[in-house]
Specification:
This protein is an alpha+beta fold. Helix content is 22%, strand content 37%. The longest helix has 21 residues. It starts with a helix and ends with a helix.
Length: 671
């Protein structure tokens, strides 16, 4: 009898231990606040700074010695203000961009008002506000924090843009005194500025019309003084601004000046180019004089430029993980050392390299690691961690992610990612569709993926046609295909994944946010037999109404409306087609429970899209829930309260409608 009781108690303890282990990370662990952000390295590599966010909502900039990792200084700001970025102007001066907050209906809102303070770390003087001698500019500019050039060869000055008398002008600002001097006069349509290697105003981007759909690129007439208000600026070229929701690249994006005052490094994403590439652009001849790097499949995402010598150092490409193609063999050797330090499929990137080559600020993350900042010593080849994104999840996640080649009906092969709960574990399948749609999934940390995997589910993602990162043809293949190949790619991926041996059963749910929410809703309506439940966050349910909303918000000639009509369809010509693929008109076809999630103050897709769909589904007798998020949550902003509410609701909804299989980690480990 005693042995039986002891055996029973042992079994209970083992089962309890397995269950606790499987769910060791709580909702608050995944939703936990980021404690450190805006990490930066001083030009000489001796110091680094970061902003600490405290639990009471306050924040402070801290300065550390990079060799000892000991704190040596910092900067605090008054209550009600928040750091938006912190950067080094020189080895002894940091710049802090600070925004104000306002409470509305109990919500903390970050206003677009911003100012830059300069702080000399050698003394305890009161920080200096930039443009201190320009009271009119301080009083009339909302975002007075746009730095054009950090002037690495002039530690006492930076170059900034600011509005003055209705024009967006360019100023040289003394970081010690805060005094500003205008060095070029813009126009009321000026959008941005770029300076050459000497800090001289060299490129000006202007909106061609009030809608800013077309961008004009100007440079001063040959030999002219750009600081002279009488100087004529000649038109170099015009291009259409790409204003998709998630892909902010313009057709031509200057990265910085070369050592030649007439040339710039640019990311060239013109429509006639197959993929975004790094090129050298000459502003005198208006020609692309050299291609520095172009990948054979993927868009270039960034390039490394030496801030002192202005030399091209290499290109960064997101394939599945981040990869660099570097010019310097020694730097490549150091990167190989870093990749060897982390092992496996990590994403290791240089955030900043010291001017003297002594150290680098490195950011590294992986599919099962939220990410952390490190200091790398080039001489010692030594790596020290200085700050984690989420301390609660460090070394705590067991889910494994596999890169997939997914065949679809027309013979195309798509890239996807499957995350399973643990080694040799199966889980019921959740298809997670990314937003954008000109965005893409990569082999990196995704909070929702890891959270659901920790609850026993297998999570699959697919880069359907219309996704970014694979070149112009792949992205444009999704234009006006919201009910076409973009949809069938998701369906085909679902069918293919359901046949895999590491998926537990055929029961599958589909979820997404933004465009992904629309895709999930459409799939759930048109192929209800494939799915058990649907989660849709912040997505449009009525495509015609969405285009009307864009026209009302941005104007009929706006680049925003032009992009969406190119991507979805024209308001008038395609009205019937758009109605036929709008979830609001398909409510009678839903057979599965639907969870809608939307922010009250969503600034991209109005909450009425979810409220109207909820009402229609209820009227049709379908199972539907709506989680409305308050607390400062907009389309792309997630305060902690929203993250907690969102994850708790996901956990409860899937537990009800897609219960983890008998092979989930908790049950698989139990005897």
């Amino acid at each position: 009898m005693g042995r039986r009781v002891l055996a029973a108690l042992t079994l209970c303890l083992i089962t309890l231990t397995a269950t606790v282990s499987a769910h060791a990370q709580s909702v608050t662990d995944f939703a936990g606040a980021t404690y450190f952000e805006h990490v930066s390295l001083s030009p000489n590599g001796n110091l680094y700074s970061m902003v600490r966010f405290n639990r009471d909502g306050s924040s402070e900039a801290r300065i550390y010695d990079r060799r000892t990792l000991q704190r040596v200084g910092g900067l605090t700001i008054p209550e009600g203000m928040s750091f938006t970025w912190v950067e080094w102007a020189s080895d002894t001066t940091i710049l802090a961009s600070v925004s104000t907050q306002l409470r509305v209906e109990g919500r903390k809102i970050h206003l677009p008002t911003a100012r830059i303070f300069s702080h000399d770390i050698r003394d305890r003087r009161k920080p200096v506000i930039l443009f201190e001698n320009e009271e009119r500019i301080l009083n009339t500019n909302i975002r007075l924090n746009r730095v054009v050039d950090m002037m690495p060869d002039d530690p006492d000055h930076i170059v900034m843009g600011a509005w003055r008398n209705g024009d967006f002008d360019l100023f040289r600002v003394n970081v010690e005194t805060g005094e500003a001097e205008r060095i070029a006069k813009g126009r009321d349509m000026t959008l941005s500025w770029f300076t050459d290697v000497t800090g001289r105003p060299s490129l000006r981007f202007d909106c061609a019309t009030n809608t800013c759909r077309k961008i004009n690129l100007y440079t001063p007439e040959d030999g002219a003084d750009p600081s002279d208000t009488r100087t004529r600026w000649k038109l170099l070229r015009s291009f259409v601004q790409n204003n998709s929701e998630d892909d902010k690249f313009m057709d031509l994006q200057p990265l910085g000046p070369t050592a030649n005052p007439d040339e710039f490094f640019v990311l060239d994403g013109r429509d006639e180019q197959p993929r975004r590439a790094v090129r050298v652009y000459n502003i005198r001849t208006n020609e692309f004089v050299e291609t520095l790097f172009e990948d054979d499949r993927h868009d270039v995402s960034h390039a490394l430029i030496d801030p002192k010598s202005r030399a091209y150092m290499g290109a960064q490409i997101w394939r599945d993980t981040i990869e660099y193609v570097l010019v310097d063999a020694t730097l490549q050797d150091h990167l190989d050392t870093l990749n060897g330090y982390f092992e496996g499929d990590w994403n290791v990137s240089f955030s900043k390299i010291a001017d003297n080559g002594s150290a680098a600020l490195v950011y590294a993350s992986a599919s099962d690691e939220p990410g952390a900042y490190y200091i790398y010593d080039f001489k010692a080849k030594d790596t020290k961690r200085i700050a984690r994104k989420n301390r609660s999840l460090h070394n705590a996640l067991e889910a494994e992610t596999e890169v997939l080649d997914i065949p679809v009906r027309d013979g195309t092969t798509l890239t996807g990612y499957l995350t399973v709960p643990g080694k040799n574990s199966k889980g019921r399948l959740i298809m997670m569709i990314h937003g954008g749609p000109e965005q893409r999934d990569v082999l990196d940390y995704d909070r929702d993926v890891q959270f659901l995997a920790s609850r026993g589910y297998a999570v699959a993602r697919v880069n359907f046609r219309g996704s970014s990162g694979y070149g112009r043809a792949f992205a444009s293949a999704g234009y006006r295909q919201w009910g076409g190949v973009m949809h069938t790619d998701v369906i085909d991926a679902t069918l293919w994944l359901q046949k895999r041996q590491d998926i537990a059963g055929s029961e599958t749910c589909i979820m997404g946010y933004s465009y992904g929410a629309y895709a999930a809703l459409l799939a759930g309506a048109l192929q209800p037999q494939l799915y058990t439940c649907i989660v849709a966050g912040g997505g449009p349910s009525d495509l015609n109404q969405f285009l009307k909303d864009e026209r009302k918000t941005h104007g009929r000639n706006s680049p925003q409306l032009a992009y969406w009509e190119k991507a979805i369809g024209e308001r008038k010509a395609d009205k019937d087609l758009l109605a036929s693929i709008s979830p609001i008109n398909l409510v009678d076809r839903y057979e599965d429970p639907v969870l809608l999630i939307h922010a009250t103050y969503d600034n991209t897709v109005e909450i009425d899209h979810s409220k109207d769909l909820e009402k229609a589904l209820n009227k049709s007798g379908r199972s539907v829930e709506l989680l409305e998020l308050y607390g400062g949550h907009t389309h792309g902003t997630w305060p902690r309260s929203s993250r907690v509410a969102y994850l708790k609701k996901l956990e409860a909804f899937f537990a009800t409608h897609l219960a983890p299989s008998a092979s989930d980690p908790a049950k698989a480990d139990a005897p």
